[in-house]
Design a protein that fits this description.
Layout: H1 3-18, E1 25-28, E2 41-47, E3 65-71, E4 74-80, H2 91-103, E5 108-117, E6 127-137, H3 163-175, E7 181-188, H4 196-205, E8 209-211, H5 215-223, E9 228-237, H6 248-272
Helix pairs in contact: 1-2, 2-5, 3-6
Bound molecules: 1-O-phosphono-alpha-D-ribofuranose.
1-O-phosphono-alpha-D-ribofuranose (R1P) binds next to strand 5 and helix 6.
Length: about 270
């Protein structure tokens, strides 16, 4: 058995000793988007610092616990707080909880994030369903020996975000009269926000939004054949003419304001998965 699998087995055994049920839906909450857990019938919460081999969240706006509960008839495990490469973790540590989720029974993954708008038609507070990503400006978590128990050496990436989930989410949003955009998320390492020239470059590359998370998580989920739905809250507009300084405080504030719309869509989507 591979070393990674041994570690995961230890982590899963610990989690199972606190919460025995399998969770079929996994959710990762982005910066300032922690209130989704209020929608769950919460059954157990486990702090990251208690879990063997788990990193701990160091970023403001990320709580740092796994929350287990139910939503309708779905068993859901939520990462209230995620890990970013810029926190100093290895890219393997960043994606470790996603790999653990697979072994907790997760069959569908829903990811949220706060992102900078690069599409010139976007405004702060918009919701963007991610329909593709650009991974070239961040670090690929599959670099290194391929762990064949998890997936193939060269995973196909033609549909990293499951089309069926995107269609469902769009129909749900339309029914709720919530406007949603759709577009390409460009993953970067951070922690610096982008320079004006970098925003322009990402726009030219085909990105509609940019952020410092999500892409590595999606890559390992796809590697393990877990279908993904992901959504961004546009918390700032990177591509702009006027003088404007971007701060994490503003990101958290914008995420908080748009969170109820995103939560409503994600909640209904999970019920319909
Ligand atoms: C910057 O304000 C932080 O917000 C976003 C960026 O990636 C960065 O971590 O966080 P999430 O992607 O975790 O939502």
């Amino acid at each position: 058995m591979g070393e990674l699998l041994n570690k995961i087995n230890e982590t899963v055994a610990f989690i199972r000793s606190k919460y025995a049920d399998a969770s079929t839906v996994g959710v990762v909450l982005g910066s300032g988007l922690g209130h989704f857990t209020d929608e769950l019938q919460v059954e157990t919460e486990i702090s990251y610092n208690e879990i063997p081999h788990f990193p701990v969240s160091t970023v403001e706006g990320h709580k740092g616990k796994l929350v287990f509960g139910t939503l309708g008839d779905k068993k859901v495990v939520v990462m209230a707080g995620r890990f970013h490469y810029y926190e100093g973790y290895s890219i393997q540590e960043v994606v470790y909880p996603i790999r653990v989720m697979k072994f907790l029974g997760v069959q569908q993954l829903v990811i949220s994030n706060a992102a900078g708008g690069v599409n010139t038609s976007f405004k702060v507070g918009d919701l963007m369903i991610i329909n593709d990503h650009i991974s070239q400006l961040t670090v690929n978590p599959l670099i290194g020996k391929n762990e064949s128990e998890f997936g193939p050496r060269f995973p196909d990436m033609s549909e990293p975000y499951k089309k069926e989930f995107i269609q469902k989410a769009k129909a749900i949003a339309a029914k709720m009269d919530i406007e949603v955009k759709e577009g390409v998320y460009c993953g970067v390492t951070g922690p610096t926000f982008e320079t004006r020239s970098e925003y322009k470059m990402i726009h030219t590359l085909g990105g509609d939004a940019v952020g410092m998370s999500t892409v590595p998580e999606v890559i390992v989920a796809v590697h393990m054949s877990i279908p993904v739905f992901a959504m961004s809250v546009i918390t700032d507009i990177g591509i702009r003419e006027e003088e404007n300084v971007i701060t994490h405080e503003e990101v958290l504030e914008a995420a908080k304001a748009a969170e109820p719309k995103m939560t409503a869509i994600v909640k209904q989507l999970i019920l319909e998965l």
